[in-house]
Amino acid sequence: MEYMVKKLIAGPMMVNCYIVHDTMSKKGTIIDPAGNFDKARKYIEQNSLDIEYILLTHGHYDHITALKKFKDYTGADILIHQRDRQMLTDPEKNLSLISYKRPVVQVDADGIVEDGDIIKVGNLDIKTIHTPGHSSGSVCYATYDALFSGDTLFSGYIGRTKDFPGANAQDLKDSLINKVLILPQSFILYPGHGINSTIKNEILKNPYLKAL
User: Fold this and answer.
1) What are the angstrom distances between the C-alpha of 55 and each of 19, 34, 85, 99, 206?
2) pLDDT tens-digit profile of 57-74?
3) How many Cβ atoms sit within 10 Å of the Cβ of residue 104?
4) What is the DSSP string of 61-101?
5) Among residues 87, 83, 31, which one has the least CA distance to residue 61?
6) Which residues touch 48 (CB under 8 Å, ≥6 apart)?
7) What is the pTM of this model?
């Protein structure tokens, strides 16, 4: 299965926005539309992509800053886990209302995803993995040899749980142990912030995982 991943880094929080597409059908999805809209649009047009979905790993403002722009441009369906859906339309809950120099975000989802759901993007199957902890509706998206982990797991650290509504440290621990670390160690890790890694590398070197 041939597919491409384009990473765009957006905003002062350095959020990773991903464009993932099947190279045969040219069907694609955007994961976490944090910004860098002009570069994303240029990439989409240069590659003649048909963006079918906008997949959200969770509802925090830094990951959805450019959600309306991407929705208006692509017409793609916005999908998020049910537990985080209300964050999209409530700027207080998604924290955009109190963010510094950030636009207030109020855009509803077109549908929801649940644990185990398969999203078909051309010939590409993307599996939803519900990983509560950083938020109650946090999810990761897995496809073939890759995991888009949002703010659940990063290179060298794990998701923040101390000061976000709906965050829970025990839930995050359970998600990592029972949902993420059981995946093939060869999987490439595409996190919500920071550099790429692999599941194996994080098992071996991530001090926060060693402390679980």
Assistant:
1) 10, 11, 12, 22, 27
2) 999 999 999 999 999 999
3) 12
4) GGGTTTHHHHHHHH-PEEEEEHHHHHHHH-TTTSSTTSSTT
5) 87
6) 26
7) 0.96
